[in-house]
Design goal:
Oligomer: single chain
CATH topology of the largest domain: Udp-n-acetylmuramoylalanyl-d-glutamate--2,6- Diaminopimelate Ligase, Chain: A, domain 1
Helix content: 25-40%
Number of helices: 12
Number of domains: 3
Number of strands: 15
Length: about 375
């Protein structure tokens, strides 16, 4: 497989445009056209992980947390990050990261956390809003099919598990070209009335430019009438956190033991009644304190996340059990699904690929 194939795999699962605007995701070090046969997967790219990749002669490291969170001002041995980048380059090891785009994707971090805790009927806790636009274009009836296909190929028309979603309305378009115009249909300086299709498709805001460019490339008109409208509809394929339920209710105390066992947490911080029965569970891998209002509104009995602030615990008292299970612990569960997808993609492509999960614990936090 080539690194471009790995990038394509993640673009289908957790596209880069879904990440937070200031996040740095994707290929961080290396040549996208290089062929790879050995991949090491880790939550973080640490000194130990890079050394392990060198020992294993890996071609690529795939992480959740980016090594280069911000563009560096210099790459030198005097800086810890710069030193790792230089080691990667010297040993021809590429580095790819999928961060908040993987947080927001179906089957991503929060979905994997919910599955690790044994939840069923999993869905997003909060669907992403203001991510979608509706693109409306007017096209001669006989050219509607190629325009629809071009827009679809550029990423428009995806609604949930359905693709190529569009609506077409027949109507009459009218125009009068000037003496310098070159009309595809009709004559200059003559009012023309043409049978047209009003074609409507949704598209992610981040892909509008690409979709419009693709549409224009196959549209026959010299001047194309189209609209791009921001819509409030939530995107069913992307969201924050996850909501599910336990197959059977558990007392909070028992559920806390279950969390520690499932995630490998040495200790958890919590607020709530240990005897309270728990069944509906909200989760968010990593720092999810800001989703407490959504967890409350969902009717969940407990919200499991990390990096919870003191005052957030106060806000939960008497309303919902709140559990801080650790940032590393609530995110490391994504490493195995990443490895599984890489192996499955290699099998489907009949490509030889060895995928390891790092043997190193990359959690910098210790419990005394």
């Amino acid at each position: 497989m080539h690194i471009t194939d790995i990038i394509g795999l993640f673009e289908e699962w957790a596209p880069t445009w879904a990440a937070w605007e200031k996040d740095n995701v994707g290929l961080q070090v290396g040549d996208a056209n290089r062929r790879v046969s050995k991949i090491l997967v880790s939550l973080d790219a640490t000194k130990e992980v890079v050394s392990e990749a060198i020992t294993k002669k890996a071609d690529l490291i795939v992480t959740h947390h980016p090594l280069l969170f911000q563009p560096p001002s210099a790459i030198t041995r005097n800086d810890a990050v710069g030193d790792l980048v230089l080691k990667l380059a010297e040993h021809k090891i590429a580095l790819f990261s999928a961060h908040t785009n993987l947080d927001f994707a179906k089957g991503g971090v929060s979905y994997s956390l919910a599955e690790s805790l044994g939840l069923v009927d999993i869905r997003f806790l909060s669907q992403q809003k203001k991510m979608l636009t509706k693109i409306i274009v007017f096209v001669p009836e006989e050219h509607a099919a190629p325009v629809l296909e071009a827009m679809t190929n550029a990423g428009a028309g995806i609604i949930g598990d359905y693709s190529a979603c569009a609506f077409q309305t027949k109507g009459k378009g009218s125009f009068r070209g000037s003496s310098s115009a070159h009309p595809f249909l009709g004559k200059r300086e003559t009012l023309e009335r043409i049978d047209e299709i009003r074609l409507e498709m949704v598209a992610p805001r981040a892909l509008v430019s690409a979709v419009v460019k693709a549409m224009k490339a196959v549209h026959p008109y010299e001047e194309i009438a189209y609209d791009v409208i921001l819509v409030e509809n939530p995107n069913p394929n992307f969201g924050m956190g996850a909501l599910g339920r336990l197959p059977k209710p558990l007392p909070l105390g028992t559920f806390l033991k279950h969390i520690k066992h499932a995630l490998g947490s040495r200790a958890v911080r919590f607020t709530g009644d240990l005897a309270q029965n728990i069944q509906t569970v909200a989760v968010c891998g990593g720092s999810g304190s800001d989703l407490l209002p959504e967890a409350l509104a969902s009717g969940a009995n407990v919200f499991v996340t990390a990096d919870i602030r003191y005052h957030t615990f106060h806000m939960a008292v008497g309303s919902i059990a709140l559990v801080d299970a650790g940032h590393f612990e609530t995110e490391q569960i994504i490493v195995q699904p990443i490895a599984n997808r890489l192996r499955a993609a290699a099998r489907a492509a009949q490509e030889p690929l060895t995928v390891w999960i790092t043997k190193h614990l990359t959690n910098p936090i210790q419990t005394f």
